[in-house]
Recover the amino acids of this structure.
């Protein structure tokens, strides 16, 4: 997905949308798991896979922008880039919010995995 600009921050808004969409799917999955609604769970599988793939594309685009800016193409490099690039407070806040949203999604996914194992 190379439609974003050259800054590692260019895809942050779209990444926020993507992680929120995945989080909503995970919450819905959790509701289906609690209700033991296997049809509902199955119906979410493709949407979850597409949401995860979209998030991966966006992260890859950001990693490419980091590499082009002279940083390692990995998540931890965003902090270094933010500190050294003179990025705005808004950009820095957006990154930190994205990290928090991703942690929430990761935790939901972990809980859902636990629920699946109990089924």
């Amino acid at each position: 997905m190379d439609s974003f600009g050259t800054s590692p921050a260019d895809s942050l808004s779209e990444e926020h949308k993507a992680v929120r969409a995945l989080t909503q799917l995970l919450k819905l999955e959790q509701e289906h798991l609690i209700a033991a609604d296997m049809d509902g769970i199955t119906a979410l599988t493709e949407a979850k896979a597409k949401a995860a793939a979209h998030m991966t594309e966006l992260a890859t685009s950001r990693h490419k922008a980091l590499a082009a800016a002279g940083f390692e193409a990995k998540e931890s490099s965003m902090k270094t880039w933010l500190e050294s690039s003179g990025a705005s407070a808004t950009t820095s806040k957006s990154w930190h919010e994205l990290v928090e949203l991703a942690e929430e999604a990761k935790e939901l996914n972990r809980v859902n995995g636990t629920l699946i194992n109990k089924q």
